[in-house]
Write a structure and sequence with these properties.
With about 150 residues, this protein is α+β, with helices and mostly antiparallel strands. Helix content is about 30%, strand content about 35%. The chain has a 6-stranded mixed beta sheet with strand order 1-2-3-4-6-5. It is globular and about 45 Å long. The mean pLDDT is about 95.
């Protein structure tokens, strides 16, 4: 399914050499999948702040909360053939609930060009922390929008 999402939407931007490792980074706290009719149709992860995560630093600077009190919602994607059923929102809500259960503030970043994801986060009330240009290890310069979940 991840390959389908990558082919249709370009997410992840850089196809990982080992997709399983990309889905399970060492900072991972938990991950969930959504199923429909016995098929996996979505995924979301919740991680500790890691190198390259911009949103935790923005939230920390704004609030004085240490990055150790922040969780990053990541690896959210839904199969192209099952969109429009609220699956992304349900997965996002599950990750937010888990972060809060751990006493952590959920944040995320998203490619500024990913209009569907930006629309989802804003429709669900996530607060824009800022828009930042990043230099990725592959030499790419990208613009990301950083968000924090509502309180």
């Amino acid at each position: 399914m991840l390959a389908e999402v990558h082919q249709r939407d370009g997410y992840p931007v850089n196809w990982p050499d080992v997709p399983h490792a990309w889905l399970t980074p060492s900072s991972l706290l938990a991950a969930w999948v959504a199923e429909r009719d016995g098929r996996v149709v979505g995924h979301v992860g919740l991680s500790r702040s890691g190198t390259g995560d911009v949103a935790p630093g923005l939230w920390s600077a704004r609030t004085g909360v240490g990055v150790d009190e922040i969780a990053v919602v990541n690896r959210l994607f839904v199969a192209p053939w099952t969109r429009g059923h609220g699956i992304g929102g349900l997965l996002l809500a599950r990750a937010v609930e888990a972060a809060r259960h751990r006493g952590l503030r959920p944040v995320l970043d998203v490619m500024a060009s990913d209009n569907a994801a930006v629309a989802l986060y804003e429709r669900l009330g996530w607060h824009l922390l800022g828009t930042v240009d990043q230099q990725w290890s592959s030499g790419q310069r990208v613009t990301v929008r950083c968000y924090a979940a509502t309180t």
